[in-house]
């Protein structure tokens, strides 16, 4: 008797073996059929046979196994004893379940070794499995794992960036909503004033107005450092940085307005022009306070500096050249869509020039300045009743012959004043090795007029008597002093048209600077 079976669950060789060993482990006393065995032999099998209990069956099984090297299937045949219990019985009756490709079993018990020549048929698998061998799977798994890891990392980065962006955006929106100045996005991330200004000065016209107001609110006044006709100057702190605050008298609103306007002119920033930080107007109703916040220079005004310092020729040259550079920058019109108008200062004097730590000048106080745009041929004279300092007024201003419709005439008047400032500087420059050779500090015309000269006093000295400051003979012994003496005389010439321009002065002094540098080397 033989039953051909293709069983769905006979594949479990382990189960089969377990069954066999249970059955065949002892059971020699009541033995049944002797079977040929191969691949399913019990431990005590002899000569490739096993002895089943009574009721046992012999089986011959076949299964296709995959051969990776050739990518084909080969039939693997196994033989052995099946126990008489349910398991063995069911396996031999497996033909009741649908056939499975590639495996089959046949049982028999009619004679000893009856299974040796049983050849169960099986349905050959049509196509070999794709070659996913053990060695192939490792790189594949590695690939899948690494792609997954990359994907996760990517998602994490995207999430992180998004969250950061969102937080900043939220803060910005909050600021706009509350319109509070304390969390201005500009100031929230900012460091020093210099960084702030660098960030925003693409146009060279200063910080945004909102930022200026915020800075003005955060200012802490430290001490008063000077008084003038326009108001008072204070040393103050903003986030630990020293700044100067000019507080204007209520009557000087026009000066505050003008100076603020000039500082906000595009491309106004220059190393020899006082650095503007912020302007603000505070107060309600009758009481108002107008502020102008600028860089602070501890060495103070040129006027104060010259009283306590004796210069050598190189520091004299540095002061004079930087002052000329500042004025030249003001006077120069820069063309272009974001160009700079020409600006005339109209109140150049040693008190309006500051000395920086590096020994260069910074021009300050633009309350009287005028701007000129050549395209429209338009001079904007501020509605300001304040007039310049009488002591430094050019003759054409004093005799009121200055042609206010020609912008050049304002520049020429500036050059007259700058000439007087050069004279103040030169007096304080020592020649030779002795500091004592320098003259004492004096204001121009100190020997002609008293401390607060009237318009008429100045007119008489400058226009009628045609007096100019004296040039000491010792200045002829030194090249820088000699050159500056010549320059200042050309600057204060009675005929405005023949005066040197700021650019000309700058070039002359530059050449001197280059020469002296070469000599030192
Ligand atoms: C300015 O003052 C500081 C401190 O008083 C000093 O160290 C510096 O040398 C001065 N600068 C000039 C140009 O004199
Ligand atoms: C003033 O300057 C304008 C423009 O340059 C010129 O047309 C005018 O003639 C000048 N006036 C006098 C009085 O020189």
Question: Would you kindly provide a written description of the structure presented here, covering whatever features stand out?
Answer:
This protein has 521 residues and is α+β, with helices and mostly antiparallel strands. It has 4 domains: 108 residues, CD59 (Ribbon); 42 residues; 112 residues, Phosphorylase Kinase, domain 1 (2-Layer Sandwich); 224 residues, Transferase(Phosphotransferase), domain 1 (Orthogonal Bundle). Helices cover 36% and strands 19% of the residues. The chain has a 5-stranded antiparallel sheet with strand order 7-8-9-11-10. Strand 8 and strand 9 form a beta hairpin. Helix 13 packs antiparallel against helix 14. The radius of gyration is 52 Å and the shape is rod-shaped.
What would the keywords be for this entry?
521 residues, Phosphorylase Kinase, domain 1, four-stranded antiparallel beta sheet, 36% helix, binds 2-acetamido-2-deoxy-beta-D-glucopyranose
Determine the structural class based on helices, strands and strand pairing.
alpha+beta
Q: What is the CATH top level name of the largest domain?
A: Mainly Alpha
Helix content: 25-40%
> What's the shape?
rod-shaped
Strand and helix layout:
Elements lengths: L1 E4 L7 H12 L6 E6 L12 E5 L3 E11 L4 E11 L3 H7 L10 E6 L25 H45 L6 H4 L4 H8 L8 H10 L1 E8 L3 E8 L2 E8 L4 H11 L12 E7 L6 E7 L6 H7 L4 H19 L10 E3 L8 E3 L5 E3 L6 E4 L4 E3 L14 H4 L8 H21 L27 H10 L14 H13 L10 H19 L1
Antiparallel strand pairs: 1-6, 2-3, 4-5, 4-6, 7-8, 8-9, 9-11, 10-11, 12-15, 13-14, 15-16
Helix pairs in contact: 9-11, 9-14, 11-13, 13-14
């Amino acid at each position: 008797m033989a039953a051909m079976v293709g069983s769905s669950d006979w594949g479990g060789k382990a189960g089969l073996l377990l069954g066999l060993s249970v059955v065949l482990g002892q059971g020699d006393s009541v033995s049944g059929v002797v079977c040929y065995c191969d691949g399913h032999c019990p431990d005590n099998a002899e000569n490739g046979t096993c002895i089943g209990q009574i009721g046992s069956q012999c089986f011959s099984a076949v299964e296709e196994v995959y051969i990776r090297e050739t990518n084909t299937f080969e039939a693997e045949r196994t033989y052995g004893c099946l126990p008489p219990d349910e398991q063995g019985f069911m396996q031999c009756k497996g033909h009741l379940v649908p056939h499975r490709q590639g495996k089959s079993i046949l049982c028999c018990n009619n004679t000893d070794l009856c299974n040796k020549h049983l050849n169960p048929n099986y349905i050959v698998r049509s196509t070999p499995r794709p070659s996913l061998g053990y060695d192939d799977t490792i790189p594949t798994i590695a690939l899948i794992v690494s792609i997954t890891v990359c994907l996760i990392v990517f998602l994490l980065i995207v999430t992180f960036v998004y969250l950061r962006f969102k937080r900043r955006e939220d803060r910005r929106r909050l600021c706009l909503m509350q319109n509070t100045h304390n969390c201005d996005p500009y100031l929230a991330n900012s460091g020093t004033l210099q960084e702030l200004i660098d960030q925003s000065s693409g146009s060279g016209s200063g910080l945004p107005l909102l930022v200026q107001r915020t800075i003005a609110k955060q200012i802490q006044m430290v001490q008063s450092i000077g008084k003038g006709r326009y108001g008072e100057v204070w040393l103050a702190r903003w986030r630990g940085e020293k700044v100067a605050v000019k507080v204007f008298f209520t009557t000087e609103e026009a000066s505050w307005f003008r100076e603020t306007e000039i500082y906000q002119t595009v491309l106004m920033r220059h190393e020899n022009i006082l650095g503007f930080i912020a302007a603000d107007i505070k107060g309600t109703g009758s009481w108002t306070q107008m502020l102008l916040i600028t860089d602070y220079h501890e060495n103070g005004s040129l006027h104060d500096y010259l009283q306590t310092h004796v210069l050598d020729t190189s520091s004299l040259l540095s002061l004079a050249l930087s002052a000329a550079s500042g004025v030249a920058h003001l006077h120069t019109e820069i063309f272009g869509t974001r160009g700079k108008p020409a600006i005339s200062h109209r109140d150049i004097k040693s008190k309006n020039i500051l000395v920086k730590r590096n020994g260069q000048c910074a021009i300050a106080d633009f309350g009287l300045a005028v701007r000129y745009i050549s395209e429209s041929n338009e001079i904007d004279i501020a509605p300001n009743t304040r007039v310049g300092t009488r002591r430094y007024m050019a003759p054409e201003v004093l005799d009121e012959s200055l042609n206010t419709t020609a912008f050049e005439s304002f520049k020429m008047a500036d050059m007259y004043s700058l000439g007087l400032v050069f004279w103040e500087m030169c007096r304080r420059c020592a020649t030779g090795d002795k500091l004592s050779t320098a003259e004492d500090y004096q204001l121009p015309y100190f020997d002609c007029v008293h401390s607060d000269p009237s318009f008429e006093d100045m007119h008489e000295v400058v226009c009628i008597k045609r007096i100019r400051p004296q040039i000491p003979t010792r200045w002829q012994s030194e090249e820088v002093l000699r050159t500056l003496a010549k320059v200042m005389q050309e600057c204060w010439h009675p005929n405005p048209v023949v005066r040197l321009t700021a650019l000309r002065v700058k070039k002359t002094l530059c050449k001197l600077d280059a020469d002296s540098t070469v000599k030192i080397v």
